[in-house]
Amino acid sequence: MSKFLTHFLFTYYIEYMAYTEEELKKELETKEYEYGFYTDIESDTFPVGLNEEIVIAISKKKEEPEWMTQWRLEAFRIWESMEEPTWANVHYEKPDFQKISYYSAPKSADPNKTLDDVDPDLLEMYRKLGISVDEQKKLQNVAVDIVVDSVSVATTFKKTLAEKGIIFMPISEAIKEHPELVKKYIGSVVPQKDNFYAALNSAVFTDGSFCYIPKGVRCPMELSTYFRINQAGTGQFERTLLIADEDSYVSYLEGCTAPSRDENQLHAAVVELIALDGAEIKYSTVQNWFPGNSEGKGGVFNFVTKRAICEKNAKVSWTQVETGSAVTWKYPSCILKGDNSIGEFYSIAVTNNYQQADTGTKMIHLGKNTKSTIISKGISAGKSQNSYRGLVQINSRADGARNFSQCDSLLMGNECGAHTFPYIEAKNKTAMIEHEATTSKIGEDQIFYCNQRGIDTEKAIALIVNGFSKEVLNKLPMEFAVEAQKLLEISLEGSVG
Amino acid sequence: MLKIKDLHASVDDKEILRGINLEVKAGEVHAIMGPNGSGKSTLASVIAGNERFEVTQGSIELSGEDLEEVSPEERAHKGVFLSFQYPVEIPGVSVTNFMKTAINESRKAKGLEDMPAKDMLKLIREKSELLEIDRKFLSRSLNEGFSGGEKKRNEIFQMAMLEPKVAILDETDSGLDIDALRIVASGVNKLKSKDNAVILITHYQRLLEYIVPDFVHVLHNGKIVKSGGKELALELEEKGYDWLKQETAV
What we know:
The structure holds two protein chains of two kinds.
Chain A: H1 21-29, E1 43-45, H2 52-61, H3 66-80, E2 104-106, H4 120-129, H5 133-138, E3 142-148, E4 151-155, H6 158-163, E5 167-170, H7 171-177, H8 179-185, H9 196-204, E6 209-213, E7 222-228, E8 235-236, E9 239-244, E10 249-257, E11 264-267, E12 270-275, E13 280-288, E14 299-310, E15 315-322, E16 327-330, E17 333-336, E18 342-351, E19 356-365, E20 371-380, E21 385-394, E22 402-411, E23 417-426, E24 432-441, H10 444-452, H11 457-473, H12 478-492
Parallel strand pairs in A: 3-7, 6-9, 7-10, 8-11, 9-12, 10-13, 11-14, 12-14, 13-15, 14-16, 14-17, 15-18, 16-19, 17-19, 18-20, 19-21, 20-22, 21-23, 22-24
Antiparallel strand pairs in A: 1-2, 3-4, 5-6
Chain B: E1 2-11, E2 14-24, E3 29-33, H1 40-48, E4 54-62, E5 65-66, H2 72-77, E6 80-83, E7 90-94, H3 95-109, H4 117-130, E8 141-142, H5 148-162, E9 166-170, H6 178-191, E10 197-201, E11 215-220, E12 223-228, H7 231-239, H8 242-249
Parallel strand pairs in B: 3-10, 3-11, 6-9, 9-10
Antiparallel strand pairs in B: 1-2, 1-4, 4-5, 7-8, 11-12
Helix pairs in contact in B: 3-5, 5-6
Family (chain B): Belongs to the ABC transporter superfamily. Ycf16 family.
Protein name (chain B): Fe-S cluster assembly ATP-binding protein
Organism (chain B): Maribacter spongiicola
């Protein structure tokens, strides 16, 4: 087995309890968050509140050029005029945006340091996360950029990638080192005014990853970013910009964790993918932000805008495994602009306790013979609410467009909810759109059947959930799939006992 | 091997088993017959440890050990196997994966390492041949879209894989055509040994032509009202259950 697995060494204990639905529900509520530790690192945190001065201060702190500062200010002014959206099927106390600190950097972070010089406390944190940076260096085929709170701490494999002409670095560095690329593409897929959170992110984003794959290059390794919110009362607003030039290929992985805290932490990221003619991007996310405790206290508010644009013959696949966050609002989308372009969305969303997820995708067919596939698997337990919201839009010029959507929901217990909101807009008569949906429940008879064959309840649920999610798990890069499977086990049956 | 004493069990406060006494020794085949609603399937579930049923009185012993506090999966590890009347579907989980998990869980309980893949494959090949199962079938999702006959054959395949001490076959003959019945029965006969025991639950004498029981018991109203040799099954076939009902009512 790959050493990559050790990054996410999830330890959990198993204790047998006889299964009844009542008991199962009780057990699920006692789940402890695996990553609920807080690392005491001195950090450099801005005062709370948001105004033009703060936006300028962030830009200054990052030593940004004037155009970037102006771009942020423009976004801030737009944001001020916007209202927080309320259409999602989630209920929460709106964050007070003046009570959040918009910049928090571990003091010891210095991009010029080599990995060996990284603060031992930070290293300890990675170790707890299961990511040893030291180890990272030795590992093959995964280059990692780690964002703690607001700053990119270390990017491994920079040199190896540079030989291929691949740029993979914190976006803060890219703004300085590759301003022409950043200027050209930032906001080209998700403009500042796109939505409330995207505008906020555009104004205050502090770091994130930047990646450029040159023409005709197949990125030889999986690129990976790891996000973690550490500091209390801070928001994390990372911005990822990934450009795959003509006929290039890249597979990108994104992982997220946050410590357990009583108050809600805000995470509002923007991810923009640009797949130029003939390019292919695979973007996989395993999101494990703190989901709040069993009473629904704390947890991360995850309001994320992810969108890709596909030029001619390009292909973008979004694969996500969402197990964390108190509230999730997230719709990784594809604009299929070029003829024959392909968009795919594969998703597993698990909610437990009081978690709420409103997630799905948008497939916007503009070009001819564009194709999209949506496979969404929602698993709800506890008192959680899990919604799929998806839009398939076929524009008038998109002759021969095709879509296939499948939304399956799996329920555990009687107090959770699964909802499906599919929107279909077809303005072209040649469009072919298929939508399938199922809802099922893990039954006591299924559990007993497994028990009778010697499989305990914990393992039985894992087996059933993994079977249910198989089509999506199969889309993840192999190492990631094994982890994701483990994560599903933790989110659901790690709690059974 | 299996000793059931004065077993009472109920579901939702309704008593279904009302004092069952049964002893099954190694190497024996017992048939339990009886009209619908007499408690046959309940007895099978209770022996397997299904917690939907509450044991209110009496005991079940396996090789001298009281099973009262033993969970269903531990009973399985100790060698209790139930071939279900209505096997459930588990989408996305292949027969092979399911069996691999089941076998390795049992091994883990015994402190053994996972079975090496090579041995697992060999075992699968051997047992699927025994039951004339096409191996493509084993990659399909467990029971999903299986015909009635395929489900039952799959149950017996699992029995072959797990090699239980006591196998309870709950209406394994229902839904089988004559060819499938012959294959399943010959599978069971090949698996039978002096060290294990089989309990057949059935409505009809038909299955007993292929798997010949040493003892036949008639269950009625949650009690065994008559026991005998294999000729009792023939008598039942001929006369139905009514005469017994009358006899016990007296």
